[in-house]
């Protein structure tokens, strides 16, 4: 898993922050300089954040747990959707529904409703309903699929949440913190890095910057999944029962000897 170089980060514009007037003072340790009224992010901090976050991602994937990707900004949606799908991780890229994690049971009911409609569409159950009812259910399925399609296979809360813009996704961040779920995220100069467990200082607006960071996180997950796959055969071998030795056959008693004639 090759870490992005300084050149990779510079070419992607990861170092470009927001205007000085929009900055969050708590980002001061991660700001290299100001240039033409724009803060420049210290890429040393970015690389440290990438390394820590990737290590956490790898560990979570290796243990078989899930990381939810959250990015509802237009420029990040397609990048995050493809990245999450490539490692079979849940994602939210259309709209974050309030209570998506704090009221997870209700969200699961909506997911099941979406799956039921999908099943009815496939098996021909809609043939017996009116055209208007079919159209209504089809539209409802499309809406649910757009919002909840990325978490359709999520049966329990994720172990961690990766957020592209922690200020934009403040509701998702607040719900995660309330439930004690580990948080990772790209933190621009207008955000507070202390609100996430693993902060990656970087440009969260440019698609190339988002892509470089997200791709590295995905590579970390792939590495963790590969190690988990390799470890399974070894674990099975250790758990295999040792064959017991067959019990020895009973020894027949010796025949009594006849005393010799005198």
Q: How would you portray this structure in words?
A:
With 262 residues, this protein is an alpha/beta fold. It folds into two domains: 6-97 and 157-229, Rossmann fold (3-Layer(aba) Sandwich); 102-156, Helix hairpin bin (Helix Hairpins), CATH 1.10.287. Helix content is 46%, strand content 13%. It has seven helices and eight strands. It has helices spanning 6-12, 43-62, 74-86, 104-123, 131-148, 170-178, 207-239; strands spanning 16-19, 31-35, 38-41, 67-70, 91-92, 160-163, 182-187, 198-201. Strands 5-4-6-7-8 form a five-stranded parallel sheet, sandwiched between helices. Strands 1-3-2 form a three-stranded antiparallel sheet. The longest helix has 33 residues, at 207-239. It is globular. Residues 257-262 have low confidence and may be disordered.
Keywords:
7 helices; 2 domains; 3-stranded antiparallel β-sheet; single chain; Helix Hairpins; 46% helix; Rossmann fold; alpha/beta; globular
Structural topology:
Blueprint: H1 6-12, E1 16-19, E2 31-35, E3 38-41, H2 43-62, E4 67-70, H3 74-86, E5 91-92, H4 104-123, H5 131-148, E6 160-163, H6 170-178, E7 182-187, E8 198-201, H7 207-239
Parallel strand pairs: 4-5, 4-6, 6-7, 7-8
Antiparallel strand pairs: 1-3, 2-3
- The side-by-side strand order for the widest beta sheet comes to 5-4-6-7-8
Q: Supply the number of structural domains.
A: 2
The fourth-level CATH homologous superfamily of the largest domain is Glucose-6-phosphate isomerase like protein, domain 1
What is the CATH third-level topology name of the largest domain?
Rossmann fold
- What shape does the CA trace take? globular
What is the ordering of alpha helices and beta strands?
A: HEEEHEHEHHEHEEH
Q: Class of the largest domain in CATH?
A: Alpha Beta
Portion of residues in beta strands equals 5-15%
